[in-house]
Amino acid sequence: MKPAPFEYHRPTTVAEATDLLAEHGDAELLAGNQSLGIVMANRLATPDHLIDLNTVDDLAFVEEREESVAIGAMTRHRTIERSDLLTEKLPMLPEAAEQIAGPSVRNRGTLGGSIGEADPAGNYPAALVALDATLEIVSADEEREVPVSDYFIAYMFTDLAEDELIAAADIPTDPFPPERTGMAFLELKPAAQTWPTVSAATAVRVDDPDADEPVVEEARLALANAADVPLRVEDAEAAVEGESLSEDALEAVAEAATAAADPEDEMHADSEFKVEVAGEYARRSLAASYDRATNIETDFDAPTDH
Ligand SMILES: Cc1cc2nc3c(=O)[nH]c(=O)nc-3n(C[C@H](O)[C@H](O)[C@H](O)COP(=O)(O)OP(=O)(O)OC[C@H]3O[C@@H](n4cnc5c(N)ncnc54)[C@H](O)[C@@H]3O)c2cc1C
Question: Average pLDDT for residues 115-131, to the nearest whole number?
Answer without folding.
Answer: 98
